[in-house]
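Field reference: sequence -> structure
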Amino acid sequence: MSENAGDLEQSFSTKRIFVKDFSFEAPGGANTFTSPWDPDVTVDVDVTKEALGNDHHEVTLTLTITVSNAGATAFMLEIFQCGIFQCSGFQGGELHRVLHTICPNLLFPYAAEAVDGMALKGSFPALTLQPVNFDALYRQNVSDDGDRED
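Structure field:
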């Protein structure tokens, strides 16, 4: 970083990663397992943030997953994968971008592993989620609605 007196030194660190909420539902019960397995998977992604003070922020990556098979919902999952991040020296839009791109990129592998494990525990085949390009999502969301919160 610059050594000018007016420049703030930037630092970023992960303080904690945790699951805030996790739900699983297989509404069809045993009937779900009577059809050949040819799933249709829908994944909805959301990222929210909350300032905690002292340059700390809680970022929540929410994945809502619906898996359908033979025209019926096989199972639904929702996970709120969270992290506490320390972000110093970032201002305005730069902080917003860090919280909505870098942080969810760090959280996603933890959420994907939990989702895969829960699908297996529900007696379904492994569910390997494709990576999410949070930078592209951020650019799309900012251009769609001009959302640049601090």
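Note: The helical segments are 92-121, 134-145.
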